[in-house]
Design brief:
By secondary structure, the chain is an alpha/beta fold. Helices cover about 40% and strands about 15% of the residues. The structure holds thiamine diphosphate and magnesium ion. Magnesium ion (MG) binds next to helix 15.
Length: about 550
């Protein structure tokens, strides 16, 4: 019908000027205008984003999310109409909850072929158009809208990209009408690169006030959940903790490595008992650490620090904050570090106090290690210890386990920013995509996914392995196989401790009779191994690493006793 520059070119041009590296996509027939522009980009050898074709929408969104979690750079996701959008919507909601900026688009027809100038395939009135896909996704994204004319496609996409990066960061959705994309568009002469979102900072008076509190408090404690998303904030956390002699504790939603676990001031995840005596809590990038809200911790003031503490996507939240320092976490922490001046004697008194807690923590971890490594069979602690001893120190760990990671995590070498990422929000089936996205971001680092057997089965496994093969993204997938949804059993027993299920051991919704996970990659010539004791596990890790070196994904099926 035509073969000229149109709305498809406007979209790709907007991606270029927004600095989008990848278009993560799962196909739908509205995307031919973009495919045309991408083919032209290739033919003309022009710079621009790389196109990644996925066999499932959840995977496309998750890869984008994993990439953005590691790089901070928003990517584009193109999926199909209302139906593909529904497949991808679980992951889109996770991006909203994780505050990861994405530009998500799918298309519809709005004229249904009635325009004699523009022929439309009959599928568009046959049910693929739901009468506004942007209405469908609206509650799950930061903002959703529709574009109906090529004249404003470029500016709409740019605006979506800019909006996604402003606070709160998150996915922005555009329903891109197919007819609009097929209308002619010529590139104006005056287009230029779009500036990145400016960083914000709390006002100096508020920083001074908090600096005074941190100086005079007897036992300040720092709690964090996602400060480590930004490596600069990770470094500022260390500087602040050291300068004021405050320990650091991770909250429940610790989706990143926020502080070096080997640091003497790190006291572990959810060790909130250390807050009992605290007269000042500095909560850095906290989402909902105090649960339930009736349990306000500490004896003094709570200062909430971070770019966006009030999470509008949470139905219920109470931070109990007395003071907010709202601004870019790294910049605000750095300003706070500059403003505090605790005298050396006070800092050493505080550090000496916390060194006892740290020692007790280390003794407890050593006892766990010893007990688990003395046993014949593997538990999660032994798995983590052997991973720590075998895997390279620059490994990026991705987590999609439920009952295992809380016990594994203290034993993993998580001492650098961006060494760990977990998809937030509780929606399972996203781990492999997130791991592939992380690998896309850091091709020179090993990426290892720990995933529960139940969680693994929610993933689009074949589709993800296909993407790993097609785009040369070898990752290690370690299935923590306890042959059940242990979380379901635990929850049931908590509510019905002496109920019929627990006394008879008849559990519904718990057991998993799964296929041999280690064989699932054979079609792709991927590596697979099974391990149920330490020797097998050590060998599986070593062989798995060798496979990664050859560019092959490795699936380790690890039998765990719990
Ligand atoms: C898409 C989706 N479906 C269902 C659930 C409910 N769910 C939460 S935890 C869990 C069990 C996961 O099992 P597994 O990964 O084996 O971990 P384990 O409980 O054994 O530690 C399930 C089914 C969910 N969170 N997401
Ligand atoms: Mg399980």
């Amino acid at each position: 019908m035509k073969n000229y520059r149109d709305g498809g070119e406007a979209i790709v041009e907007a991606f270029r000027n927004l600095g989008v590296d990848y278009i993560l996509s799962s196909p739908g027939s509205e995307w031919s205008p973009v495919w045309e522009a991408m083919a032209r980009q290739k033919v003309e050898n022009a710079p621009g984003p790389t196109f990644i074709d996925c066999w499932h929408e959840t995977l496309a969104v998750d890869m984008a999310m994993g990439y953005t979690a590691i790089t901070g750079r928003p990517q584009a996701v193109l999926i199909h109409a209302g139906v593909g959008l529904m497949h991808g919507s679980m992951a889109v909601l996770s991006a909203t909850q994780a505050e990861l900026p994405l530009i998500v688009m799918s298309g519809e027809s709005t004229t249904f072929g009635d325009d004699p100038e523009q022929q439309m395939e009959p599928q568009w009135y046959g049910g693929v158009s739901v009468g506004g896909a942007h209405r469908l996704i609206e509650p799950l994204v930061k903002w959703a809208g529709q574009v109906t004319h090529a004249a404003n496609i470029y500016q709409s996409v740019v605006r979506a990209g800019e909006m996604a990066q402003r606070l709160p960061q998150g996915p922005v959705y555009l329903n891109m009408s197919l007819e609009a994309m097929m209308q002619p568009w010529s590139k104006p002469d005056n287009l230029r690169a779009i500036p990145p979102a400016p960083r914000t900072m709390a006002v100096p008076q508020d920083i001074e006030e908090v600096a005074k509190l941190a100086t005079t408090a007897r036992r300040p404690v720092i709690v964090t959940e996602s400060a480590g998303r930004d490596p600069q904030a990770f470094a500022a956390m260390v500087a602040l903790a050291e300068k004021i002699g405050a320990p650091v504790i991770g909250g429940r939603a610790s989706t990143y490595t926020n502080f070096p676990q080997s640091h003497p001031l790190w006291l572990g995840l959810q060790s909130f008992e250390h807050l009992e005596d605290s007269d000042l809590i500095l909560l850095v990038d906290g989402k909902a650490p105090w649960y339930p809200a009736r349990k306000r911790p500490g004896k003094g003031q709570i200062v909430s620090i971070g770019a966006y503490p009030i999470k509008q996507h949470l139905a219920y939240q109470n931070l109990h904050a007395d003071i907010y320092l709202e601004g870019d976490t790294a910049i605000t922490l750095e300003a706070l570090v500059k403003a505090v001046s605790v005298d050396a004697a006070r800092v050493s008194e505080r550090c000496a106090h916390w060194s006892k807690a740290r020692q007790a923590y280390e003794v407890m971890l050593a006892a766990q290690r010893q007990a688990s490594l003395a046993a014949d069979k593997l538990d999660a602690v032994a798995l983590a210890c052997i991973a720590a001893e075998t895997l390279p120190c620059d490994t990026i760990y991705i987590d999609e386990t439920i009952t295992h990671m809380p016990v594994m995590r203290p034993h993993l070498p998580l001492n650098e920013a961006q060494s760990f990422f977990r998809v937030t929000g509780g929606a399972l089936g996203q781990g492999i995509g997130a791991a592939l996205g992380a690998k896309l971001a850091k091709r020179d680092k090993p990426v290892v996914l720990f995933v529960g057997d139940g969680s693994f089965l929610y993933n689009p496994i074949i589709q993800a392995l296909g993407a790993s093969k097609a785009y040369d993204l070898p990752i290690m997938i370690v299935v923590c196989n306890n042959k059940r949804y242990e979380a379901m059993r635990k929850g049931h027993v908590l509510y019905y401790p002496e109920g019929a299920a627990e006394t008879s051991k008849i559990h519904y919704g718990v057991n998993i009779e799964a296929p041999d996970f280690e064989n699932l990659g054979t079609h792709f010539d991927f590596f697979g191994a099974k391990a149920s004791d330490q020797e097998e596990l050590r060998k599986a890790f070593a062989d798995g690493l060798a496979a990664l070196q050859q560019g092959r994904t490795a699936i380790l099926n690890v039998s765990l006793v719990r």
